[in-house]
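User: Some background: our group keeps a shared notebook of sequences we're curious about, and every so often someone picks one and asks for a predicted structure to add to the entry. Today it's my turn. The entry only has the sequence so far, pasted here. Could you supply the structure so I can complete it?
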Amino acid sequence: MYSVVCKGGGMQIRARNREHLEALKRRYKIILDKIPIDETPQGDYGWRMTVSLKQWITVSGLLAADIDYPNFKDAARDANVDNRYLNILHRIWWMMFSYQSYRKSYRKGNYYPYQKYLYQKRDEWTDSAPKPEPDFDDATEFDYGSGGLEDL
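Assistant: Of course. Here's the predicted structure to add to the notebook entry:
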């Protein structure tokens, strides 16, 4: 997983795992082979590559053309990524789905039925993901049991 921004005279591809950038370079070697991966230990992303806009347009178009899966969560699981990473992906998905559902129900003035439905379905949706590990600090922990949606 990586983030892309316009910075430093080009498009900066940033990642929290160096292996993600290395995999991107391997996949699109003809375009990215000579692009260095810079380590930025003090940054919010630990590794970065800077490419030209033209290079990014080419790579992003190829990335789009390479999507062949109907479900991202299943594709991530099937890619044999490490369990901690898969767990984080599922947690992000769950938090964003909860936010979306909360916003929909709030606009309808019908918050509690959506919350009840979400908590009933949560275990089914996250069954394939490892259970959350307890080493997240309070700033990133999402409490599934407290109804934490009201804080959104």
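Suggested note for the entry: Strands lie at 2-7, 10-15, 38-39, 47-51. The two ends are 25 Å apart (CA to CA).
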